[in-house]
Here is the input.
Amino acid sequence: QKALDIANLKMTDVVMDTYSGIGTISLLAAKRAKHVIAVETNSSAHQDAIFNQKMNQVKNIDFINEDVSFYMNRHQGMVDVLIMDPTREGASESFLKSVIKLSPKKIIYISCEPATQVRDLQLLKHKYKVDLVQAVDMFSQTVHVESITLLSLKTA
Here is the structure.
Protein backbone atom coordinates (compact mmCIF):
# COMPACT_ATOMS: atom_id res chain seq x y z
CA GLN A 1 0.00 0.00 0.00
CA LYS A 2 2.80 2.41 0.92
CA ALA A 3 4.58 1.77 -2.39
CA LEU A 4 1.42 2.57 -4.34
CA ASP A 5 0.86 5.72 -2.29
CA ILE A 6 4.40 6.81 -3.15
CA ALA A 7 3.84 6.00 -6.84
CA ASN A 8 0.89 8.43 -6.88
CA LEU A 9 -0.80 6.46 -9.65
CA LYS A 10 -3.37 8.13 -11.86
CA MET A 11 -6.32 6.55 -13.67
CA THR A 12 -4.54 7.33 -16.95
CA ASP A 13 -1.33 5.42 -16.03
CA VAL A 14 -0.07 2.22 -17.59
CA VAL A 15 1.81 0.25 -14.93
CA MET A 16 4.23 -2.62 -15.42
CA ASP A 17 4.69 -4.81 -12.35
CA THR A 18 7.84 -6.88 -12.75
CA TYR A 19 8.60 -9.85 -10.51
CA SER A 20 4.83 -9.77 -9.97
CA GLY A 21 4.49 -13.13 -8.23
CA ILE A 22 0.89 -14.00 -7.39
CA GLY A 23 -0.28 -10.52 -8.37
CA THR A 24 -0.72 -8.86 -4.99
CA ILE A 25 0.75 -5.49 -5.98
CA SER A 26 -0.73 -5.74 -9.48
CA LEU A 27 -4.26 -6.19 -8.14
CA LEU A 28 -3.89 -3.21 -5.83
CA ALA A 29 -2.35 -1.05 -8.59
CA ALA A 30 -5.23 -1.92 -10.95
CA LYS A 31 -7.63 -0.06 -8.66
CA ARG A 32 -5.62 3.14 -9.24
CA ALA A 33 -4.41 2.81 -12.85
CA LYS A 34 -5.77 2.53 -16.36
CA HIS A 35 -3.97 -0.73 -17.11
CA VAL A 36 -1.46 -3.06 -15.42
CA ILE A 37 0.94 -5.44 -17.13
CA ALA A 38 2.18 -8.01 -14.61
CA VAL A 39 5.20 -10.08 -15.64
CA GLU A 40 6.34 -13.17 -13.74
CA THR A 41 8.66 -15.97 -14.83
CA ASN A 42 7.44 -18.60 -12.33
CA SER A 43 4.55 -20.49 -13.95
CA SER A 44 3.04 -21.61 -10.63
CA ALA A 45 2.95 -18.04 -9.31
CA HIS A 46 1.54 -16.92 -12.67
CA GLN A 47 -1.34 -19.40 -12.40
CA ASP A 48 -2.05 -18.19 -8.84
CA ALA A 49 -2.10 -14.60 -10.12
CA ILE A 50 -4.70 -15.47 -12.76
CA PHE A 51 -6.79 -17.22 -10.09
CA ASN A 52 -6.49 -14.14 -7.83
CA GLN A 53 -7.54 -11.90 -10.73
CA LYS A 54 -10.68 -13.97 -11.29
CA MET A 55 -11.50 -14.10 -7.58
CA ASN A 56 -11.18 -10.31 -7.32
CA GLN A 57 -12.97 -9.67 -10.65
CA VAL A 58 -10.28 -7.30 -11.92
CA LYS A 59 -10.29 -6.78 -15.68
CA ASN A 60 -7.55 -4.22 -16.37
CA ILE A 61 -4.54 -6.51 -15.81
CA ASP A 62 -2.62 -8.64 -18.30
CA PHE A 63 -0.65 -11.37 -16.54
CA ILE A 64 2.36 -12.43 -18.61
CA ASN A 65 4.30 -15.63 -17.84
CA GLU A 66 7.68 -14.86 -19.33
CA ASP A 67 11.22 -13.78 -18.54
CA VAL A 68 10.88 -10.17 -17.45
CA SER A 69 13.91 -8.81 -19.33
CA PHE A 70 12.89 -10.54 -22.55
CA TYR A 71 9.35 -9.20 -22.29
CA MET A 72 10.47 -5.63 -21.57
CA ASN A 73 12.91 -5.63 -24.49
CA ARG A 74 10.14 -6.39 -26.98
CA HIS A 75 7.31 -4.47 -25.31
CA GLN A 76 5.72 -1.91 -27.58
CA GLY A 77 4.05 1.05 -25.96
CA MET A 78 4.47 3.50 -23.14
CA VAL A 79 4.85 2.53 -19.49
CA ASP A 80 4.22 5.32 -17.02
CA VAL A 81 5.23 3.47 -13.84
CA LEU A 82 7.39 0.38 -13.45
CA ILE A 83 7.20 -1.50 -10.17
CA MET A 84 10.05 -3.81 -9.30
CA ASP A 85 10.31 -6.03 -6.24
CA PRO A 86 13.22 -8.39 -6.92
CA THR A 87 14.56 -11.12 -4.67
CA ARG A 88 17.19 -10.45 -2.01
CA GLU A 89 19.88 -10.82 -4.72
CA GLY A 90 18.52 -7.70 -6.42
CA ALA A 91 17.99 -7.19 -10.13
CA SER A 92 20.24 -8.61 -12.82
CA GLU A 93 22.27 -6.28 -14.99
CA SER A 94 20.29 -7.42 -18.05
CA PHE A 95 17.03 -6.57 -16.26
CA LEU A 96 18.29 -3.09 -15.36
CA LYS A 97 19.42 -2.48 -18.95
CA SER A 98 15.93 -3.51 -20.09
CA VAL A 99 14.42 -1.00 -17.66
CA ILE A 100 16.62 1.75 -19.06
CA LYS A 101 15.63 0.80 -22.61
CA LEU A 102 11.92 0.79 -21.68
CA SER A 103 12.33 4.20 -19.99
CA PRO A 104 9.23 4.36 -17.77
CA LYS A 105 8.51 7.82 -16.37
CA LYS A 106 8.71 6.53 -12.79
CA ILE A 107 10.11 3.46 -11.05
CA ILE A 108 9.03 2.10 -7.69
CA TYR A 109 11.84 -0.13 -6.46
CA ILE A 110 10.87 -2.25 -3.46
CA SER A 111 13.79 -4.02 -1.87
CA CYS A 112 14.30 -6.35 1.07
CA GLU A 113 18.09 -5.96 0.79
CA PRO A 114 19.41 -2.39 0.91
CA ALA A 115 22.92 -3.39 -0.24
CA THR A 116 21.71 -4.85 -3.55
CA GLN A 117 19.29 -1.98 -4.01
CA VAL A 118 22.15 0.53 -3.74
CA ARG A 119 24.15 -1.54 -6.25
CA ASP A 120 21.20 -1.54 -8.68
CA LEU A 121 20.58 2.18 -8.27
CA GLN A 122 24.16 2.82 -9.42
CA LEU A 123 23.19 1.43 -12.85
CA LEU A 124 19.98 3.45 -13.01
CA LYS A 125 21.36 6.79 -11.78
CA HIS A 126 22.51 7.95 -15.21
CA LYS A 127 18.94 8.07 -16.51
CA TYR A 128 16.93 8.34 -13.26
CA LYS A 129 17.02 10.47 -10.17
CA VAL A 130 16.06 9.30 -6.70
CA ASP A 131 13.10 11.33 -5.43
CA LEU A 132 12.32 9.46 -2.22
CA VAL A 133 13.50 6.55 -0.10
CA GLN A 134 11.12 5.17 2.52
CA ALA A 135 12.12 2.43 4.96
CA VAL A 136 9.35 0.13 6.15
CA ASP A 137 9.90 -2.14 9.14
CA MET A 138 7.82 -5.19 8.31
CA PHE A 139 9.89 -7.60 10.37
CA SER A 140 9.81 -6.29 13.93
CA GLN A 141 12.62 -7.27 16.26
CA THR A 142 14.92 -8.26 13.35
CA VAL A 143 17.61 -6.45 11.38
CA HIS A 144 15.57 -6.74 8.15
CA VAL A 145 13.87 -3.74 6.60
CA GLU A 146 12.02 -3.12 3.34
CA SER A 147 13.04 -0.09 1.34
CA ILE A 148 10.79 1.66 -1.17
CA THR A 149 12.55 3.99 -3.58
CA LEU A 150 10.82 6.32 -6.02
CA LEU A 151 12.86 7.19 -9.10
CA SER A 152 11.89 9.53 -11.91
CA LEU A 153 13.23 9.89 -15.42
CA LYS A 154 15.69 12.75 -15.67
CA THR A 155 14.70 15.54 -18.02
CA ALA A 156 17.18 16.87 -20.56
Notes: The two ends are 32 Å apart (CA to CA).
